[in-house]
Amino acid sequence: MISTSATLEQQTFAGGAASVRDLLRARRPRHGLPGAFYTDPDIYALDIAAIFEREWIFVGALCEIPKPGNFLTVTIGNSPIIVLRDRKGEVRAFFNTCRHRGFKLCDAAKGHTPALICPYHRWTYRLDGTLAHAKHMPEDFNPEEFPLVSVHVRTVGGTIYVCLADDPPDFAPYQEALTQQLAPHALEHAKVAFEADLVEYGNWKMVMENSRECYHCATGHDELMLTFLDIYDFANPDQATNIRSYWDKWETAGFGPSVSEGPTHRAVRLPLTGDARSMTMDGKIAVGRPLGQAPADAYGSLRWVHYPSTFNHCLNDYTVLIRMLPLGPEETLVTTKWLVDADAVEGRDYDLSNLLKVWTITNDQDKALVERNQAGVRSSGYRPGPYSPSLEAGVLKFVDWYCEKLDHHLDGLSRSPNRDGRSS
Questions:
Q1: Under 8 Å between Cβ of 358 and 223
Q2: Which among 56, 68, 197, 378 has the fewest CB atoms less than 10 Å away?
Q3: Which pLDDT belongs to residue 241?
């Protein structure tokens, strides 16, 4: 007979906050999540409300909107968002929804526009979100009452984040930490050399967990591991000396600490393997023009993650930004942006296929791993196993963070009044 706790670890979910709490409590310390957290539509809806509509979400790079009128769009949960520079050069974000009938204003992923014009009935908005024109409305219509709905937006080190919540979490600690870490990489003076979307048929948490460990790298990523130093080689005395020497070069050059960690992020500098100078198939530099500055003979990468939506790698010659956004209970959009120096010229300073190859292969491999893992957790025989204390410490940190956020959200729901005014 299967015990009650084992049953809860399966994917069956009865619905309701109490049931989610039962599932959270059924999770053993330092173990994975019950299967329902990767498959159930109601828990997915809870994830959108508790995580993606409340936390800071990575959008893209400032270099994608360099001038007034430049914009980029993204969809977070059910909410289309537009991020742009207004006429004063200020970065703004709005719900990409007309105030008339709710029509989606802009379908393009990015571009340039002097104003936001709704294609449905031609309501026209200035770049600061104010309504400039709405024809055939009554005399008492006041356009000042119908600006676009603003979204909180913050920038750090050439990257952009938005938060859909009315009262967003404090961004300052993360901003302070990453400002130091990203300063030498000059992402403000970059351009997107290429961008690729990949739909992974796995829950967004499965995608994030896969990105938080290299337990699988030796067997899952042959091409990446040609140059990628496994962080857990730090346990090897010779490798530890190599890492410490690399850190010393950056810190001596005045670039601040080589490791930064907070509740929602971790950033660490690590050298590449052997004499590699970039993450390429042959380990040679991919881009002739460096992106930013680095100490002499310090070849490696700044790796950083921010929950719930991004992990990234800044090398001396290029940067890879990876954004993960949920599309459904078992579907995640992974967007990769390769950044190079703004003055780098394709065909002269870099070969695009060479620049893309390692990460394109790695992303395809991760897609296959995630989808096979997703197939396994759907099984009625799935039981969450324990994490490796060393090789999966990053996964455990993320899962613990997720459980805490969900539990806090459920606390808020239990205190919210019902329609009759009583607490639920």
A1: yes
A2: 197
A3: 85
Residue-wise pLDDT for 76-129, tens only, equals: 999 999 999 999 999 999 999 999 999 999 999 999 999 999 999 999 999 999
- Domains in the chain and their CATH numbers? 1-55+188-416 (3.90.380.10), 60-163 (2.102.10.10)
Task: Evaluate whether 414 touches 17 at the Cβ level (below 8 Å).
Answer: yes
**pTM confidence score:** 0.93
CA–CA gap between residue 402 and residue 26 (Å, rounded): 15
Give the whole-angstrom CA distance, residue 357 versus residue 360: 5
pLDDT on residue 234: 47
How many other β-carbons are positioned within 10 Å of the β-carbon of residue 310?
Answer: 24
- Dig out the tokens for 186 from the structure: 């000059």
- The token duo for 237 is 């005395």
Cα 29 to its chain centre, rounded Å, is 26
Residue 347: Cβ-neighbour burial (10 angstroms; 0-12, 13-18, 19+): exposed
Exposed/middle/buried for residue 389 (C-beta within 10 Å: 0-12, 13-18, 19+): exposed
Return d(Cα 307, Cα 56) in angstroms, integer.
8
Give the separation between CA 320 and CA 361, rounded to whole angstroms: 14
- CA pair distance 228, 272, nearest whole angstrom: 6
Residues of the chain with pLDDT under 70: 1-18, 231-238, 416-424
Q: Would strands 300-306 and 310-315 be described as parallel, antiparallel, or unpaired?
A: antiparallel
Q: Where are the beta strands (DSSP E) in 307-394?
A: 310-315, 319-328, 331-341
